[in-house]
Amino acid sequence: MSDQPTIAQKQPYVMELEAGTYYWCSCGQSSKQPFCDGSHKGTSFTPIKTEIEETKKVALCGCKHSQKAPFCDGAHAKL
Ligand code: FES
Ligand code: FES
Predict the structure, then answer these.
(1) b or e along 12-30 (b: 16 or more beta carbons within 10 Å of the residue's beta carbon)?
(2) Using a 6 Å cutoff on CB, does residue 8 contact ligand 2?
(3) Quick one: pLDDT at residue 2?
């Protein structure tokens, strides 16, 4: 079991999301990035739930090292 997330990509997933509830993958192993697909089972990671109030463009962290997860905080630049 590893406590280090897998880097899915060293840049954010910039996308437009509609209002709703989303589960961001924190482990980096989902094949449905940036969202959880259940692949974290057996690891110490769990997805981070985020509520989007209205349709908007977001930058979701792909490197899994952001301190402001699920959003990108620029941490990917130092990996
Ligand atoms: Fe990564 Fe669920 S698959 S947190
Ligand atoms: Fe992870 Fe930017 S993609 S901090």
Answers:
(1) bbeeeeeeeebbbbbbbbb
(2) no
(3) 57
Measure CA 38 to chain center: 13
Domain regions of the chain by residue span: 13-78
Contact 67, 61 (CB under 8 A): no
Residue nearest to atom 2 of ligand 1 (CA): 36
Regarding the beta carbon of 73 and ligand 2, being less than 6 Å apart is answered yes
Give the DSSP letter of residue 28: S
The pTM of this model reads 0.95
* Tens of pLDDT, residues 50-64: 999 999 999 999 999
For residue 58, how many C-alpha atoms fall within 13 Å in the half-sphere facing its CB? 21
Alpha helices in 1-79 (DSSP H): none
Question: Which atom of ligand 1 lies nearest, measured to the CA of 37?
Answer: 3
